[in-house]
Specification:
It is built from 16 helices and 10 strands. The chain has about 400 residues and is an alpha/beta fold. It is globular and about 70 Å long. It starts with a helix and ends with a helix.
């Protein structure tokens, strides 16, 4: 099979893995004489970093053959799909060739399990090692690690990769046991805990290093992430967010990614026949943002939902505000940061500008319009120098007023 034929199969097989955004690395090629590649800048992009940068990645599997038989996976051993496998050198050559043509800024590499977890992880690490040590590639590398592999192999992966990820796959241990019997939830968490310790140790050593002295060895400077498949099991959004909150607290994850289950060829009868609405995935990302950056607790978000499922018609922050109107309106000129973070339509960047601007003069509605694109959504929940919502905050039709027009393709 020709390399381009393999690429067509293995790039398509990798599309189901969402956990491939990059951020948090501090390497710059300009600081390394003779190195090529950079994690900075813009490009032809297929992934977004949390800071908004677009990152173009060559996103492929080493092979789409897998000896495991996870029901939800198109690459499972019993799946009737075309198979392909790259050699280590082929992945290296593709990465360098695509980079030199300015197609990509880095590599996201995963793989099905071939022969054994250790053998597969050895092959994945060999790609990263060869790129870094032989070709001095300084671009972004994200490696999907295998929890059952030898911890020494995971440690070696962290030496060469900017980010590592181990997918928890499903929101509950019971669902994992039923749909992916070869995978062990305890082993996955044990591996994630080991990565967290190594990441934190490496950061501590670098901070403690003396200026001008030798820098300690880096270890996955962009941290670790994971992914959950949504809609393949009966878990509601509340259960999913509680799992995410636990993962953030326990393992210091940079991101939890949510991937709406997509029906696959020759699917198991234990799986749903239709995929969940894409809007559900979108709402989970919005709720995840509230957990990490807006000071919301899981139970606050879930408490504003209906039967454990997030409202598909309004975002989670708006749903909370509509249920807790007693907290509104808030005065943008005097309210505390924590109160303003709860205003629908007001993001963290807009809030920072408001806090800086109100030191110099009382903010009017026109000032807010220059700062925030969604000032119309904010109006029922705020007071400013020339605006009072009056009874608007308590109107019975407020939900209909703040709900955006339906995007039918996301509700399908």
């Amino acid at each position: 099979m020709q390399t381009l034929e393999k690429l067509a199969i293995l790039a398509d097989a990798a599309k189901y893995d969402a956990s491939c955004a990059s951020s948090g690395t501090d390497k710059k090629s300009s600081l390394k004489t003779g190195a090529i590649g950079s994690t900075e800048g813009m490009g032809i992009c297929h992934a977004y970093a949390p800071d908004g940068r677009c990152i173009s990645l060559l996103k492929i599997l080493l092979t789409n053959y897998c000896r495991f038989d996870c029901h939800y996976c198109v690459n499972r051993v019993s799946s009737n799909v075309p198979r392909a496998r790259f050699t280590v050198d082929e992945v290296v050559d593709l990465t360098l060739g695509f980079y030199r043509r300015n197609y990509i800024e880095g590599l996201f590499l995963s793989s099905g399990i071939i022969q054994s977890p250790d053998y597969t992880m050895e092959q994945v690490v060999a790609v990263a090692r060869k790129l870094r040590e032989e070709h001095r590639f300084n671009g972004y590398i994200h490696l999907k690690t295998i929890p059952d592999a030898d911890p020494d192999l995971l440690a070696e992966a962290g030496r060469f990769a900017d980010r590592l990820s181990i997918n928890v796959e499903l929101p509950s241990q019971a669902s994992l046991a039923r749909l992916a019997p070869e995978k062990d939830a305890g082993r996955i968490r044990q591996s994630m805990a080991g990565l967290r310790l190594r990441i934190e140790d490496a950061k501590g050593e670098r901070k403690a290093a003396r200026p001008g002295g030798a820098k300690p060895q880096r270890f996955a400077p962009a941290g670790q992430s994971t992914q959950m498949i949504i809609g393949a099991d009966p878990s509601d959004d509340g259960a999913i967010l509680r799992q995410s909150s636990s993962l953030y607290a326990s393992y210091g994850l940079r991101r939890v990614y949510y991937s709406a289950f997509s029906p696959i060829p020759d699917a198991s009868r234990t799986l749903p026949l239709v995929r969940p609405p894409l809007m559900r995935e979108h709402r989970l990302y919005q709720a995840d943002w509230l957990l990490r950056f807006y000071g919301f607790g899981v139970e606050e978000i879930v408490g504003a939902s209906d039967g454990g499922m997030l409202d598909l018609h309004v975002d989670p922050k708006t749903a909370w505000a509509l249920k807790h109107r007693e907290h509104f309106p808030v005065d943008v000129n005097v309210a505390a940061r924590e109160s303003l973070l709860r205003v629908p339509g007001l993001g963290t960047k807009g809030l920072a500008k408001i806090l800086a601007s109100r030191r110099h003069h009382a903010l009017r509605l026109e000032d807010l319009a220059r700062i925030c694109a969604s000032v119309k959504k904010m109006m029922p929940f705020i007071i400013c120098a020339d605006w009072q919502p009056g009874g608007l905050t308590d109107r019975t039709d407020l939900r209909a007023r703040v709900a955006p027009a339906k995007q039918m393709e996301l509700f399908a």
